[in-house]
Structure formats: C-alpha cells, structure tokens
Amino acid sequence: MIKASIKNFFKSLGFYFIPLGVMAFCLMICLSITIPHMIGVVKGAYQSISTSIGQTSFDWNAIQSALIAKFMEYASDIGKAMALISSPEGIVNLLKEIAMETFGLESLTNEIVATLENAVIEVMSDLVAIFASLVIGLFLGFIFLKIIIRRYLANTNMFKAFLISIVDALVFTGVMILLSYLKVNNEVWMWVTIALVVLGVLLISQFEAYLFYGVGKVKFLKVVNIKNTITLLIGDLIDIIFGIGVSVAIYLTMNPITAILVIIPFAMLIVCILGINAETYTSQLVFENKIDKRIDKEIEKRSIEQ
Asked: Which of 1, 13, 23, 112 can bridge 231 by disulfide, Cβ–Cβ 3.0-4.6 Å?
C-alpha cells in the first residue's frame, strides 16, 4: 500500500489544474462584474471629493503611487492585510492617511469622510463577493477533482464516485463533531485520542474501499487488517511530507498571497490522494483477483482438453 500511495501522488499531480482552473473560472466571472462596479464607485467618490474640495487639484499619479506603495506593504504581511480587509474603519483611516500624505490637507470635511465610508462599504461588498467566488470555486473544484481522481485511479463510475464522496463527507463531519465534543485536558490523553481517531479514520477508509469495490470479489480481511492500516498510515505520511515540501517551496518562491492561492488547490489534491489510497489498493486487488481467476480457468480448460 505504501508503493500505491507514492504512485497515486505522482500520478495525480497533473490533476492539480482542475481545482485551480475551476477557482480561476469562478473568480473571473465574479471579477468581470465587481471590477467595473468598483471602478464606478471609485470614480464617483473621486468626483464627489473633487466637488467638495473645490479648487484643490488631484494628482492621480501621486494617488496611484501611494496606493501601490500601501498595497505592497500589506501584501508582504498577510496578517496585517486580513486585519485591514476585515475592518472598514481601518480602510477609511488608511485612505485618510494617503490623502493627507498626497494632498497635504490638514483635515477632511465630514462630507468627504462620508463619501469615503460609503465607497468603502460598496467596495467591501465587492470584496466579499470575490472571496465567496473563491470559496465556491474551491468547493466545486474539490468535488470535480475527487470524482475525476476516483475515475482515473480506481476505475470508479460517476455514480459510485458521487456516492463515496457523500459517505466521505458524512464521515468527515462525524469526526469533526466527535473532536469538537471531546475535551481532553491531559496532554498525553489528547495525543492518545488523536491517534485513536486517526486509526479509526484509516479503518473506515479501508472498510469503505471494501464496501464499494471488494464485496464478493476479495476477502474482507485481505483489505481490512492491521498490516494494511499501518502501511496505509505510512503511505499517507509520505504523501503529506511530499505535499509539505512542495508547499514550502512554492511559498518561498512566490508572494505570500499568490503562494496561498496556489497552495490551497495543491492541498486539496493531497487530501483527495489521501482519501483514495485505500480505494486504489482495493481496486488493484480486485483486478489482480480477476486476472488470477482467468488464469485458473484457462489452466483448468487446457487440462480438461488434454
């Protein structure tokens, strides 16, 4: 099973672009709507502030340079960027700061502040829509990825792949509920509990694999046993180590925000691989069993003819 896990990792790398493509597709649809709206909001705020200030001239290049400088500052610090995005007041204060630095204004009128706040609220709603499109894209990408990987690696038909995905979702939800109710204060017992949960999940994945692939085709204990559980655990750990290594390499070579957007689909791919390892092993056992039966029948047929 260790060998199968490693094979699954490298065979599945080409499917990385499925969740990334779905996410990008959903994002582009959303951006095609939100960007024109945000541009309109910014232009409206610009005209309103220009009217309020009167004769004060605007240096758009200076504004653009200030905004780019601030963007680069926040892009290098994800925590700071998330804190800013989640706080409309913080964005308004940042715009005030940029205005003060750019225009040299000693104070902003209440009318200008109200204009900025209204613009920020509308832009924030667009940003929420963009974030929602990313979440929807990742969710749909994960579903398509899991179905296609099951179809490719375990020769699963679409209905069976969908059914297994439902069972997986129920098992995952049950495990999360169990962990949320378990309150382990002792550190030793906490790790024992985690180990038992991991063991339970591995056994369940083997049982699922037998249920959907091996019933009536291979013996139950040939799929669900301690040896397979241990080798499945080792294989999953190897896949996780590979995944962490690739993720760290991506993070070190890219801008943090871009790196996260690239790593998330890759993490989804790793999760799908971990969920399919027991199934591909069982599917391979079934295939080998069919071959053995055909060989036995052929040998028996030839012996009868002789």
From this structure: 1
Chain centre distance of CA 65: 33
Q: Are 145 and 15 in contact (CB under 8 A)?
A: yes
- How far apart CA 241 and CA 227 sit, in angstroms, is 21
Over 60: is that where the pLDDT of 191 sits? yes
CB atoms within 10 A of CB 242: 17
Burial group, residue 146, by CB count within 10 angstroms (0-12, 13-18, 19+) = buried
Residue pair 44/51 in contact (Cβ under 8 Å)? The answer is: no
Alpha-carbon torsion (212, 218, 221, 226), positive or negative: negative
Q: pLDDT above 70 covers what percent of the chain? A: 64
Angle between helices 78-85 and 60-75 (to 10 degrees): 120
pTM over 0.90: no
Tell me the pLDDT band of 153, cut-offs 50, 70 and 90: confident
